[in-house]
Amino acid sequence: ELSKRLQNVAEFIPVTTRKFADIGSDHAYLPCYICENNKNTRAIAGEVNQGPHDAALRQVQSAGLQDRIEVRLGDGLGVISPNEVDCVTIAGMGGTLISNILTEQVENLSGVDRLVLQPNIDASSIRMFAKNFQWQIVNEKIFEDDGYIYEILVLEPQESLEKNLTEKEMYLGPILMREKNEAFYKKWEKVLDKKINIIEQMKNAKQIDEEKVAYFSKQTEWIKEEIH
Ligand code: SAM
């Protein structure tokens, strides 16, 4: 049974996808699930580590999907060539690592018309990637699974010049803060409590980092504006 987290990621992979790459695929659960449910889709499961790579191979073989899913060992987008896939998924890592992976071999994203990204933390660094590399955030989702709150960001190549997101939208998510579901409130209540604590501690320190205090205070204001 696929986790609710990965089922949510799967929802954003269009049924018309011919071939997608799942980078950092570990057991290749996502490619196996998609290819089992959608007979016209092929996949590449990319892994930089031997252990997870071998686990992916075993999973693909036991599902009998080796003719449609290729498991490749390599770093990030290095496992795909330009114009080889139409969709790329990266799930279950920090947002900073995800944006580093995308940035390092960004030329291999040519021909890709959708990125489905599920950062465990730091979604804002993915929004920064989008801004810097002309991708548009076409969808966002926040949800709870097994006590944790996750976010998914869906990016497509920017077609026209878009209005720049505000700093606040970059931080909270332009679509998430418009929709404001239960998970959104839950996440930001928690972050707010934490930030307020940290600001207190920073103010009590011998050397006060005024700039950081100001930045954190600004963030708490943004959060309060949206959840109170
Ligand atoms: N994507 C799966 C999921 O969401 O359940 C697995 C997530 S797992 C926590 C992260 C995986 O990413 C690990 O198997 C790790 O080896 C792999 N990984 C980390 N950095 C990578 C990179 N630069 N290129 C490819 N894979 C990477």
Essential attributes:
single chain; 228 residues; alpha/beta; Rossmann fold; 2 domains; 7-stranded mixed sheet; 44% helix; 22% strand; binds S-adenosylmethionine; tRNA (Adenine(22)-N(1))-methyltransferase TrmK; TrmK; tRNA (adenine(22)-N1)-methyltransferase activity; methyltransferase; SAM-dependent_MTases_sf
In short:
This is tRNA (Adenine(22)-N(1))-methyltransferase TrmK. By secondary structure, this protein is of the alpha/beta class. The chain has nine helices and seven strands.
Description of the molecule:
Helices cover 44% and strands 22% of the residues. By secondary structure, the chain is α/β, with parallel strands linked by helices. It has two domains: 4-161, Vaccinia Virus protein VP39 (Rossmann fold, 3-Layer(aba) Sandwich); 183-227. It has a seven-stranded mixed beta sheet with strand order 3-2-1-4-5-7-6, with helices on both faces. Helix 2 links the parallel strand 1 (19-23) and strand 2 (42-47). Helix 1 (4-10) packs across helix 2 (29-37), helix 4 (95-104) runs parallel beside helix 5 and helix 8 (182-204) packs antiparallel against helix 9. The two termini are 38 Å apart. The model has no long low-confidence stretch (mean pLDDT 97). The site of S-adenosylmethionine has 16 residues, from strand 2 and strand 4.
